[in-house]
Amino acid sequence: MLEIRTYPEPVLRRRAQPVKRIDRELLSLVSDMLETMYAEDGIGLAAPQIGESIRLCVLNVTGGADGELVLINPVVVEQSDDEVAEEEGCLSLPGVRADVLRPERVKVNAFDQRGQEINIDAGGLEARCLQHEIDHLDGRMFIDRLNHAKQMLLRPQLKRLEKEFAG
Fold this sequence. Notes:
Layout: H1 24-39, E1 44-46, E2 56-59, E3 69-79, E4 83-88, E5 98-103, E6 105-111, E7 117-123, H2 124-137, H3 148-166
Antiparallel strand pairs: 1-2, 2-3, 3-6, 4-5, 6-7
């Protein structure tokens, strides 16, 4: 199992670099990320969350083997105008939850672990998870999408995480 990096770790705020090749090392990392995601009861995990600043994420919103997705160099190519607010949490922000406004549907292009191009048209929880994980690859966290008032309400929790990180 890999160590989950938590706020305010600097790696979580850097734009991740594109994956240049799929090799044995990357496939091992994918396997370890999936194992870590499941062990932490997550539905998604981006490489920066485990200290790797590369454009790779894994997710499974159904919990079944057929719901597992590995996305290499994912890009949101289209998003709906309709937005929906739903509660989000994050393995890198333990104990922090908030309603986040996001597009209801997205289309994402990426490569899978075999190097095959995949195109995903998603709505609901899958769309939300895709956007959340791709945000991580861009150095963003869900708290960055909140208005100032909501951010201020979370400030005590974020200060606690900052203190734990520093100590």
